[in-house]
Specification:
- The chain is of the alpha+beta class.
- It is 34% helix and 25% strand.
- It folds into three domains: 47 residues, Uridine Diphospho-n-acetylenolpyruvylglucosamine Reductase, domain 2 (2-Layer Sandwich); 110 residues, Uridine Diphospho-n-acetylenolpyruvylglucosamine Reductase, domain 3 (2-Layer Sandwich), CATH 3.30.465.10; 115 residues, CO dehydrogenase flavoprotein, C-terminal domain (Enolase-like, domain 1), CATH 3.30.390.
- Helix 5 runs antiparallel to helix 8 and helix 10 crosses helix 11.
- It is globular.
- Bound molecules: flavin-adenine dinucleotide.
């Protein structure tokens, strides 16, 4: 199938892009790497009157590490970030997660911002961004605003980004002190979307857990923090975190997620795997944090 006819716009500046978008927001889409949008247009899952290709806008392909966090422009490709030594040093969790996104050819074109805006519930980066307290900058004709990761995702493929807004930059916050991490997912083949995945972050202070993040993905309509599970770890000495406590936390995650039952996997399987990955991921994150302490 081919897309329905559209007008192809190639703005040279973000202001121009925002102006074109603002002239007919409900009938326009931004094109970045095209790794999701082009197939959706071809399948007519999405139809547009205006396709706004931002690839010719200079200066949007930056990747910077600042204060331990990572700042990525709207045209930085997955591979730009994955291959950055500075990013690997600052946020190895992000580098590790990127290696699970599709295949190298797709990561050569696909952008970090595009992955977040696409908001596939089984995608890796939205969960990492949420776990790392991310935020992004969105621009419209009316100005710019900041949207936090925890207020961005509404449901599958739906976000709080307004149709007249173009995202210019996304930020992943740095971790502090003795913070360990893990990225776990189960896929049918390497490079597939996750059947279930879990991102964890654990920070230790004086040997006890001062902060924990548990963010499953692929097991609901969007990535979410399971705060009821996180709280069970707070204040507990790392050396006292035994199998019984990890089982309890994993059970809380399995109970909290809301997975789909589809041709790829059953709801029960995904729920079970979310718990298994939580348990495994937390053990790794705690060991990692202890080594950094
Ligand atoms: C075979 C295959 C396997 C894949 N496997 C995975 C996988 O395992 N995990 C995974 O996460 N993804 C996977 N993907 C999807 C893909 O990696 C990402 O969704 C894609 O890279 C998104 O970035 P993009 O730049 O290509 O976005 P595009 O396709 O250009 O756009 C995606 C959406 O984001 C919007 N958008 C993009 N940039 C902006 C912006 N600056 N401002 C406002 N809106 C914007 C577009 O309008 C569109 O709605 C796979 C894709 C393919 C083809």
């Amino acid at each position: 199938m081919k897309p329905t006819p559209f007008t192809y716009h190639v703005p040279n500046t973000i202001d121009q892009a925002a102006r074109i978008l603002g002239s007919d927001p409900e009938n326009s889409r931004v094109l970045a790497g095209g790794q999701s949008l082009v197939s959706m247009l071809n399948l007519r899952l999405v139809t547009v009157g205006n396709l706004i290709d931002i690839n010719r806008i200079p200066g949007l392909d930056y990747v910077r590490v600042e204060a331990g966090g990572v700042i990525v422009g709207a045209l930085a490709r997955h591979n730009d970030v994955e291959s950055s030594h500075e990013v690997r040093r600052a946020l190895p969790l992000l580098t590790s997660a990127l290696s699970h996104v599709a295949h190298s050819q797709i990561r050569n074109r696909g952008t970090i911002v595009g992955s977040l805006c696409h908001a596939d519930p089984a995608a890796e980066l939205p969960a990492v961004w949420l776990a790392l307290d991310g935020e992004l900058t969105a621009q419209s004709e009316g100005g710019t605003r900041t949207i936090r990761a925890d207020e961005f995702f509404i449901s599958s493929f739906t976000t709080t980004l307004e149709p007249n807004e173009v995202v210019t930059e996304v930020r992943f916050s740095g971790t502090t002190g003795a913070t360990g991490w893990s990225f776990e997912e189960v896929t049918k083949r390497h490079g597939d979307f996750a059947l279930a995945g879990v991102v964890t972050l654990v920070t230790l202070k004086n040997g006890a857990v001062s902060s924990a993040r548990i963010v499953p993905f692929g097991v609901g309509s969007k990535p979410i923090r399971i705060t009821s599970a996180e709280q069970q770890l707070l204040g507990v000495s790392a050396s006292a975190i035994d199998d019984a406590l990890l089982d309890q936390v994993a059970a809380a995650v399995s109970a909290a997620v809301d997975p789909a039952n589809d041709i790829h996997a059953s709801e029960e399987y995904r729920r079970h795997v979310a718990g298994v990955l939580t348990r495994r991921g937390l053990r790794r994150a705690i060991d990692d944090a202890q080594q950094r302490a």
